[in-house]
Every structure is written in C-alpha cells, then in structure tokens.
Write a structure and sequence with these properties.
Elements (H helix, E strand, L loop, with lengths): L4 E6 H11 L16 H17 L3 E6 L6 H5 L12 H16 L3 E4 L5 H14 L3 E6 L12 E6 L6 E4 L1 H7 L7 H9 L14 H11 L2 H6 L8 H8 L1 H11 L21 H11 L2 H9 L4 E2 L10 E2 L5 E3 L14 E8 L9 E8 L3 E5 L3 H4 L3 H6 L5 E4 L2 H10 L7 E4 H8 L8 H7 L8 H5 L11 H28 L3 H21 L1 E3 L1 H26 L8 H11 L16 H5 L5 H26 L6 E2 L2 E3 L9 E3 L11 H4 L5 E2 L5 E8 L2 H10 L2 H8 L4 H9 L10 H16 L3 H8 L3 H14 L1 H17 L1 E3 L5 E3 L8 H37 L5 E5 L3 E7 L3 H13 L10 E6 L7
Parallel strand pairs: 1-2, 1-4, 2-3, 4-5, 9-12, 10-13, 13-14
Antiparallel strand pairs: 5-6, 7-8, 10-11, 11-12, 15-16, 15-19, 17-18, 20-24, 20-25, 21-22, 23-24
Helix pairs in contact: 1-2, 2-4, 7-8, 7-11, 12-13, 16-21, 17-20, 21-34, 22-25, 27-33, 27-34, 29-30, 30-31, 31-32, 32-33, 34-35
This protein binds a DNA duplex (9 and 15 nucleotides) through α23, α25, β18, α30 and α31.
DNA sequence: TTACTCACG
DNA sequence: ACGTACGTGAGTAAG
C-alpha cells in the first residue's frame, strides 16, 4: 500500500521568489484597492500547480515569525546585510496566509524559529510516522533534509518549474556528497544572503573537495594536522571559529518546540465558494473565469457602484430552426444580439452563427444564417425601431448585416464602445476579455474556445458553440445596466449616445462605400518603380563593393560603420541606427544618398503600390478600410486593411500615389476638406490664452504670430522663413507636451537655447503656462484627464516614482485633451455632415477621415453647393472661444484635391 | 514575435 | 541627474 503523504511548503522563500519573479511589473499587478498582487499571483499559481494535483493527506505552509530567531541570538549579524523587505511585498503577507487557508492548507509560524526549522521538524516527525514527505521551497539549502522518505522540490528560475531532490539527485549535484554534508559545505563557504561568513577564501569548489576527503567540519579540524602546509591550511586554521559558527547557523533545526502535531495538518481541499470573494477582492480575473466555468456563482457587482446585478452562470440557450422561429417573436422590446464571423475583417468574413434573446426569455442560437436573411421575425426585430438591441461592436455588425441586406437600427448598448469610453487603457477586442475586465466572468474568451493561430477552429458541436455564443449574449445583456451607470457617473452618456454610437453608423457607411483605386495606374507605377529600384540597387552594390541586403539595417550598419568606416551617430538596442535622421547627417556620402533614395522608393513600392494592390476588392475595384473606433488612447480613429490615414503627401514621389485614388463614377470628383490648425485652436480654447485667441480671431498666420512673440519682433514686422519654421516647431512642441531636449533636437538649436525659447513662449502665452500646470495637477488629483466631450484618459503613471514614466504621463496629460478634443470635434462634424448630405438630398458621399480632414466624392454638379455646405457644417460642429476654419479642394483624383 | 524603419496627422 | 517630443499601421529582417 502506498504511504500517506505530507506536503510542507516554505511560505517565506516562495513568497519572495514569486515577488521577485514579477518585480519588473510590480506596478502592473495592482488590485482596485491599490494592493500589490504580484507575489499573490505567483503563489496562487504555485498552489494550483502543485497542491491541487498532489492531493496530499497532510499539508502545511510554514512562515517566518519575525526577525529574531535562535540564529540571531548566536550571531547578531545573521541576515544582517539583507535589504529591508519591500513594502510592496510586506502588504501581501496577510492576504497570502488567507489564500493558503482558502486552499485548505494550514499556516504555521513559531516565534524564534524560521520556516525552515518548522519544516525540518515536521519532515522528520512525518518520516518517522511513515509518511512520504515532500518539501516545496525556493531555497536549495533545504536539500540537507533529503532522505529516502523526504523529497525536496526546489523552484528553478521563474518559479513555475521545480527540481526534485532525492538522495540520488543530491549526490549528482554535489559530486557524491550526501544531503547532511550540504550543512558542512555551507559552513565552509558561508552564505552572503544570510550574511554568515564561512572560512574566508574557501568557495564552493574547494568546499566540495575538502568534504569528499574529510566528510565533515569536525572531522576536518580533528585531522587538520595531516594536511600539508599550504595557504589553504592557514585559511582553514584562521577560519575555524567562523566555520563552526556558520555550520551551526546552516543547520536546520529538526527538533523545534512546535505547538502543533501531524494531526493538525489535515489537508481540507480548496474552499471554492470562499475563494470567489477573495479573488474578486484581489481582481484575479483569470481565476474567477476558471471558477465561473466550474459553475460557481459570481456577482458582477462592483464595490464602487450601487448596482448589484447578480448573475448566475445558468444559461438557457436553445437551438433556433425554421420550425421554432415563432419563439423569438415573444422576446419583447429589448434583445441581446451577437453575430459570429469567421475572420476579423467583417467586410469579407463569412457569418458563422448568431444568437439572439435576453435574460428574461432565454437565448436562441443557430448556424443557419439564412434565417436572418429571409423575411423572418429575426429580420423584423433587427430592423424594428421599437426593439432595442444590445450588441458588441455596432460598426462590425452594421457592416456584416448590410451584406445580408439587413439594416440594423436602434442599438441601445454596445459593450465594446461603452468599455472603451470608460477606460481606454483596457481596450480589448475580445468580448470575453472585456467582460472579465468589467467583472462579468461567466463567459470565456474566443482564444479559450476557438484556439489561436493554426489551431483556430470554431467548435463543430452545436452544443459547444451555442453555449459560448449564449454566454457572449448574456455578457452583453448583463453589462448594459452597470456600464450605463458608470457612463452616467463619468458624465459620458452624451459622448456615448450623441457621438460614438451614431458615429459607428456613419463610419459603417463610409467603409461600405469604400474608395475606388485605379489599379492600372498603380501597375504602371510599379513597373517604373521596379526599374528605378533595380538601378539603385546596382549602384549601391557598386558603392559598397559587394552585394548585400539593403533592407537589413544590420547588414547596412556593417557596411557603413565597419567596412566604410563612417562614424555611427546613434545606436539602437541591437546595433547601429541607420534611420533617416542619422543618414541625413552624412548625406554627402554617395552611398548614403543612394540608400536614402532606395529606402524612400522601396517604401512607396512595397507599402503603398503593392500593399494597395493587394487589398483592392475584385468586385468593385475599391478599397474598404476598417476604422478602429476603440483603439487609440486619445479618441482618434485608426485605419487598417488598408491604412488610408498615412497615404504619402509630404514628398512628391510618394504623393503621386494619390493619383490612383479616384471617384467611383464618371463625372464625379473627390473633395477634401481640412481643418486649419485645429489642435492649436483647441489649445487656444481650452487654455483660455488671450493672446492666442486674439491671433485666431483676427485670422492671423499663427506660426508667424508666435515667431514675433518668441523672437521679440514688432506686431507687424515681417517674419523670415527660418523664424517661422522654428515657431511652428515650438507650437507643435507645446501640443506634444514640450521638453527643451525634444525641441532642441527638432529645430537644431542647443538645449539651452530651446529652454530659453520655451520660457519666452510661456511668458508670452501665459494662459498656456497656467493651463499646463493646472492640467498636470488635475491629472495628479483625479488620475485622468478629459476632452471637451468628456472623453477620458487615465494616467496611472502620473504618480510614478520613475522620472521617465512620470514625465511621459505629464506630457500625455497636456497632449491628450488637445488631440482628443480635436478628435471629438471632427467626429461631431462627421455625424452632422452625414445628416446634412441626406437632408439636402445630395448624392455626395463621405469616404475617408484623416484626423483633421474629410474626403468626399460627389457628382461634379454638386460641387458648388458642397463647397459651401461642407465648411459650414464642419466649422459649426462645436462652438469654441475661437473660430474653426476649414478649407476645401476638389479634383479628379485625391492628388488633385489638394 | 520583436526590432527597426518610415508613412501620416 | 534622470532621457524625452503626441497619436497611429505596415513592411521587412531576424531571432
């Protein structure tokens, strides 16, 4: 019969190991109450990974009771050099014990003794009583306890893996010595961590050699006369007292006066119900998901809201088919709806399955997408203005449904959008992950259910798929109320209801419309470019003396800075930097000129010509970008597949790419409309700076006006181009959260000069100075900053001890309200614009947004009307203390619409 | 996957 | 003294 088992865990050493394993991210493991949890996370994984599969009969976690032990009495410097335990760890000790208890394991500590001694004593007792003993620790010294009955598991780097020390393993690692002799080794070597000396000049190698010959320290000194005279012998004689003391200190006490017996250590098993609130307290999302999936009830209530929405994991999902369609006619006036696609690009991905329903009447799922298309109650609900829809990602759904010719209306709650507005930091595109962030755990992430990469697969079993989809719908439905409450608390209901949600529909139409790309034109460009690149390539090989991969910064670095002996001006993490700013400083070297040109053309070729050709839809010769509405930290949009917000414009070569963007119909034109200086106007508005506001009210050239101020010119003095250039850089710098270093680098002056310029600027625009100070103070006090439309950005690093992190947060505090308010404005303009076009019965369509610019296509005959309408709608989007200014340009291609 | 480079506002 | 401009996406190389 197998022996009963006793598991002994070294709490202190494992807590330290866990803590330091995640020390780099210590500030990322913070509970909502501000408790650090990195050691708790590591320790929890350890308990789950070891105790759970182990199912011991007896178990104990031993802790150190305090600083003074019998060892400090013998040697008052014991552990003397050790740094004070960091506060971030100290605060985790109490919860660690609580966690151990909830895992069904006894905690124990004994004043005057270390955890080692408690373990040593119980291990010995256990072995005698016939238990198979296992010790888990982060401290290899414990291997001195190893015997036939006692195995010691020592964590390796990263704590998740352990080495199993048996007598054979000890012999293997210590060159044939037995476990008890580890004490002798420590006696000779000492221990820097515990701060006891050993014999000066004896290290691990010598110690092992000596013990192989003399077996133990007492025997060594008994036989020391046998030793031939040597430096080593002298050291041993001089260090005898230290050796004997160190040996004593290294010896684990196996007879500590414990107040507990083996009987007290019965393993209780995990107390799941009690773990739920405990994990909630610590914000252990992943653990809560695990428990939810095991069927434990988790409340979604949040301590800081009054809402207490209890959700059980019981779920009612039925399969929907043509025969029971009538069931959904009785769902009522509010439904949760989710449509699963087989890919992330909703313009092309195929619908896989859907789920509809609500908590009151249950959920219905089906793989039969045809059910949506035909004239069924489903389609009627989705297109019914009277039925509220709760969804995840309105825009994706609108586009996907529009491909099925379903016009989705009356979206009430969008989980993705609402979560993004509440906290841009935890923007996730996975419904499950987002639900977890919002304390709803009865749903898994797609990765958990579908796998990822090559393993991605939608479950073949209806039951599995429908369960997952049902839970998604349930998550959406359950979170509507609490998230609306939070939006209200943040004064963001308006932002959600009048800006972001309507914008989803506007963006969907723009994406669906797409923009036509002249593939022929791109193909012409490509063949020309191929020739030019081939020529350049040959020239570069000649200049270098041999062939190499020009596109490899690593190989290029070797050519320039080793073979050709040029001076490297900047380094990256991995080697020499070969970026434009570096190469431009040595541009009179012929090969460098060639490389800069090659890079420019290669970029145009691969990213724009070939990149665009790849994404043109065969059906309509258009590209249909996707705007990511819930990604940026500032509230801007971003654009992918393709990115139409970074089409070249600054350099003529690249700008010609725009010749390939054309209207979708003959006799139509493209019109671009851009806000002039929107960010600086926003700056003038929110800082309330009188001088800057006056400049905009008088429609002055703002950069020239700034140049006059920072260079002390008269009000009507002419401003030369260089001064204007510098002033422009300063204006930009202010928007970015200026630093003297950044400005100096940008305009090529010394840091000191830059500092002086900034100082003058802030004196001249004193409202700006006051505001920058105020906004940083606001961020410190509230932990976030916001835009004119109450878009919020949290800045946890504003209080960071690390100078860099803190400085970055301070610059962000200045930049985000400006960039974000500009984003608010153009979003409002887009919604109004869409409405105005409809109202006026115009054929014109809004196609693209590029942060401060909108691009339309329209019949040429509407041009005159649009040239009045577009600027009027855009500049009246919001009322600021300064006017907004919009310029329009029209042409047969995007290139000409400048 | 990460680093580098470079396109845009 | 610290080491910096803000916000993005995509292609290529190389581990």
């Amino acid at each position: 019969m197998a022996k009963p088992t006793l598991l002994l865990i070294d709490g202190n050493s494992l807590a330290f190991r866990s803590f330091y394993a995640l020390i780099n991210q210590v500030d990322r493991f913070l509970s909502h109450e501000g408790l650090h949890t990195n050691a708790l996370v590591g320790f929890n994984n350890l308990l789950d990974g070891i105790v759970d599969p182990f199912q011991p009969d007896l178990a104990l976690v031993a802790w150190d009771a305090g600083k003074t032990t019998f060892r400090t009495e013998k040697f008052d410097n014991y552990k003397g050099q050790r740094d004070k335990t960091p506060q971030e760890l100290v605060e985790q000790f109490e919860p660690l014990r609580e966690m151990v208890a909830l895992h069904g394991i006894k905690n124990y500590e004994l004043p005057g003794y270390e955890a080692d001694d408690i373990i040593g004593t119980l291990a010995t007792k256990g072995a005698t009583a016939g238990y198979a003993v296992t010790i888990v620790t982060g401290d290899r010294d414990m291997t001195q306890l190893v015997s036939d009955d006692i195995t010691v598991w020592v964590t390796k780097k990263g704590i998740s893996e352990v080495d199993h020390y048996t007598p054979a393993m000890v012999a293997d690692v210590y060159d044939g010595l037995n476990p008890k002799q580890i004490i002798e080794l420590k006696g000779l070597q000492g221990d820097t961590a515990d701060n006891y000396p050993g014999v000066a000049g004896i290290g691990p190698k010598t110690a092992i050699k000596l013990m192989k010959e003399y077996h133990s320290i007492p025997e060594l000194y008994a036989r020391i006369d046998e030793m031939k005279p040597s430096k080593q012998k002298e050291k041993l004689i001089a260090g005898e007292a230290d050796a004997r003391l160190s040996r004593e200190l290294a010896t684990i006490d196996v007879d500590a006066p414990l107040a507990i017996n083996l009987d007290d250590l019965k393993y209780q098993g995990i107390k799941y119900e009690e773990l739920v609130p405990f994990y909630q307290h610590l914000d252990f999302k992943a653990q809560l998901v695990k428990l939810a999936n095991m069927g434990y009830v988790i409340s979604t209530s949040d301590e800081d809201t009054t809402n207490s929405n209890m959700t059980t994991v019981e779920l009612d999902v039925r399969e929907l088919s043509a025969t029971n369609l009538t069931a959904i006619e009785n769902l009522g006036s509010e439904v949760d709806f989710y449509l699963e696609l087989d890919g992330e690009n909703y313009h092309t991905a195929a619908p896989v399955a859907f789920v509809i329903g609500n908590q009151t009447n249950g959920y219905f799922a089906s793989r039969d997408v045809e059910l949506l298309i035909e004239d069924t109650p489903l389609k009627r609900i989705l297109t019914d203005e009277q039925v509220k829809k709760n969804v995840f990602n309105t825009k994706a759904l609108v586009v996907a449904l529009s491909r099925l010719e379903i016009n989705l209306v009356n979206v009430n709650f969008d989980l993705l959008l609402a979560s993004y507005l509440l906290d841009t930091n935890d923007n996730q595109n996975d419904l499950g992950a987002l639900a977890h962030e919002n304390n709803f755990f009865a749903v898994q992430t797609d990765e958990e259910v579908y796998g990822k990469g090559a393993k991605f697969q939608i479950p073949a079993m209806d039951a599995d798929l429908f369960e997952h989809l049902g839970r998604k719908a349930l998550a959406i439905g359950s979170l509507a109320k609490p998230l609306f409450a939070k939006l209200a608390e943040h004064a963001q209901l308006d932002l959600y209801q009048t800006i972001e949600l309507p914008l989803s529909f506007v963006l969907a139409s723009m994406e669906i419309a797409g923009i036509k790309v002249d593939a022929e034109r791109l193909l012409q460009m490509r063949s020309k470019m191929t020739e030019r690149l081939a020529e350049l390539e040959q020239r570069i090989y000649q200049q270098a003396g041999h062939e190499f991969n020009i596109q490899s910064p690593k190989q290029l670095g070797v050519i320039l800075f080793e073979e050709m002996g040029l001076t490297p001006l900047k380094k990256t993490k991995t080697g020499y930097s070969t970026s434009v700013e570096v190469l431009e400083q040595m541009a009179d070297v012929p090969i460098v000129e060639s490389i800069l040109m090659y890079r420019q053309l290669a970029k145009i070729q691969s990213t724009y010509i070939e990149g665009l050709l790849r994404v043109i839809h065969g059906s309509d010769s258009k590209v249909h970008t996707r705007y990511l509405q819930t990604l940026t930290q500032t509230g801007r949009l971003s654009s992918v597949d393709p990115n139409l917000q970074n089409i070249p414009v600054r350099v003529e070569e690249g700008r010609r790419i725009r010749q390939a963007f054309v209207p979708s119909k003959p006799d139509w034109v493209l019109i671009s409309a851009d806000y002039s200086q929107i960010e600086l106007r926003v700056l003038a508005h929110i800082t309330g700076d009188a001088a800057m506001q006056a400049a905009f009210r008088q429609d002055e050239d703002i950069h020239a006006a700034t140049a006059r101020r920072i260079f002390g010119l008269a009000e009507d003095a002419p401003v030369d181009a260089e001064m204007r250039r510098q002033a422009k850089a300063v204006n930009f710098g202010i928007v970015y959260g200026i630093s003297d270093f950044g400005l100096a680098k940008n305009i090529g002056v010394t840091r000191k000069e830059a500092k002086a310029i900034i100082e003058t600027y802030l004196n001249e625009y004193s409202g700006v100075r006051a505001w920058t100070e105020e906004i940083i103070e606001f961020a410190r006090e509230h932990g976030y900053v916001e835009t004119i439309a109450h878009r919020r950005r949290y800045l946890p690093d504003i209080k960071a001890k690390n100078f860099n992190q803190r400085s970055f947060a301070e610059r962000t505090a200045m930049n985000s309200p400006i960039q974000g308010s500009a984003a608010d404005i153009i979003k409002i303009a887009m919604i109004n614009m869409q409405a105005a076009l409809e109202e006026q019965g115009l054929e014109a369509k809004m196609l693209l947004q590029v942060h401060d610019e909108l691009i339309f296509e329209a019949p040429a005959k509407e041009l005159t009307q649009l040239e009045e309408l577009i600027p009027r709608v855009m500049d009246s989007a919001v009322k600021l203390a300064v006017p907004l200014k919009v310029a329009t340009h029209a042409g047969k291609t995007w290139y000409e619409a400048k």
